[in-house]
Amino acid sequence: MQELKDIITGLEQRIQVYKSKLQDLQKRRDKIDGDIKTIKKYLELAETLCRVEIAKAKGGKGFDQDSPGNEKGATEEEDQSDIILLEKTKYVGLSVPQASYLLLKELGRTAHAKEIYQKLTKGGVRMRGKTPITSIAISLSRDKRFKKVAPNTFDLVGDIETDVLSNNNGS
């Protein structure tokens, strides 16, 4: 009977070791998945930048300007690459409130936190967490530049630059 208890105890210990190893591997996999997503985004940006530079190089030398359509095609391709690159890096390095301020100013209208989140992530803002939309809503509700006009919907309080200029000119 004691022998059976020892076997069961040994098996339970092994089970715990395997569970622990499984949890560690899952954590490592999640970290690797996150790293893969990040690298893919950087790769996509680098490829876009490369296409832009190649288009610029083609437009600069070895280009037959006498051929109709060539210059226009290269310029359109270059412009399109520039636009793609600009859109994907528009908000890189900015905080959520900074990027949201620029976004709402550009939109010229109110926006729901979900729309803000979608546009910011397309513009290069990286957000971690399980509830990024809630995080945006909380962040904007704490910032004096924004006013909440409906549930999770925000607008700019006013054009701060214009307000400052009009106050200085009025004095």
Description of the structure:
By secondary structure, the protein is mainly alpha-helical. It has helices at residues 2-60, 70-89, 96-107, 113-122, 132-141, 160-170, and strands spanning 111-112, 146-150, 153-156. A hairpin with a 2-residue loop joins strand 2 (146-150) and strand 3 (153-156). Helix 4 (113-122) crosses helix 5 (132-141). It is flat, with a radius of gyration of 27 Å. The relative contact order is 0.07.
Spatial gap, N to C terminus: 95 Å
Structural classification: mainly alpha
* Annotation, overall tally of beta strands: 3
Strand arrangement within the widest β-sheet reads 1-3-2
Helix content: over 70%
List the secondary-structure elements in sequence, H or E: HHHEHHEEH
Count of DSSP helices?
6
Mean pLDDT: 80
Low-confidence stretches: 61-73, 160-171
Rg measurement, Å: 27 Å
Keywords:
6 helices; 171 residues; Arc Repressor Mutant, subunit A; flat; disordered C terminus; mainly alpha
In short:
With 171 residues, this protein is mostly helical.
Topology:
Blueprint: H1 2-60, H2 70-89, H3 96-107, E1 111-112, H4 113-122, H5 132-141, E2 146-150, E3 153-156, H6 160-170
Antiparallel strand pairs: 1-3, 2-3
Helix pairs in contact: 1-2, 4-5
